[in-house]
Design a protein that fits this description.
Largest sheet: 5 strands, mixed
Structural class: mainly beta
Shape: globular
Number of helices: 1
Length: 157
């Protein structure tokens, strides 16, 4: 049964966000994403930043990537992590250099699938929380660096 407070969204390969239950690093410690609210201070790569909005959606027949514990580095993540296939993950290791020729790269989770440590799967239902900041940010979700969008700026008419 779906929560009426969450919007239903069709399956899309560009779905982004943090799956329910994933712990996000904040000034109050690691909190499950579903407990975050606008104004909360989240630890980002550029320092503590206030959340501008939290957008909750439910995806049906969602393409996901399950990341095994330690697949992206020591204790990254600490436990298996579920990511929507389109969620950009920051790589800052040999993969960024070998695959993209740079020290750091934001790569959709689906591009990292190897079939063993990062597996493509499907979920009948996936609750996602999109964290929105004033500027694009990189957050720490269960020890993995994920990119988050900036708030949309209204265009003059």
């Amino acid at each position: 049964m779906t929560d009426p407070m969450l919007a239903a969204a069709p399956h899309t390969d560009v779905a982004t966000g943090v799956a329910m239950g994933t712990r996000v690093l904040t000034l109050q410690g690691a909190l499950a994403v579903e407990y975050l609210e606008p104004g909360d201070r989240v630890i980002t790569r550029s320092g503590a930043r206030a959340l501008r909005a939290v957008e909750a959606v439910v995806l049906h027949d969602a393409a996901v990537v399950t990341v095994a514990a330690g697949a992206l580095g020591h204790d990254r993540p600490e436990a298996p992590l579920c990511l929507p296939a389109g969620q950009p993950v920051m790589l800052r290791d040999w993969r960024a250099q070998a695959l993209y020729g740079c020290r750091a790269a934001a790569v959709p989770a689906a591009r990292l699938v190897d079939g063993e440590f990062l597996r493509a799967e499907s979920r009948a239902e996936l609750r996602l929380f999109r964290l929105v900041f004033d500027a694009p940010e990189v957050i720490y979700a269960d020890g993995v660096e994920l990119t988050c969008a900036a708030a949309a700026v209204a265009q003059p008419a």
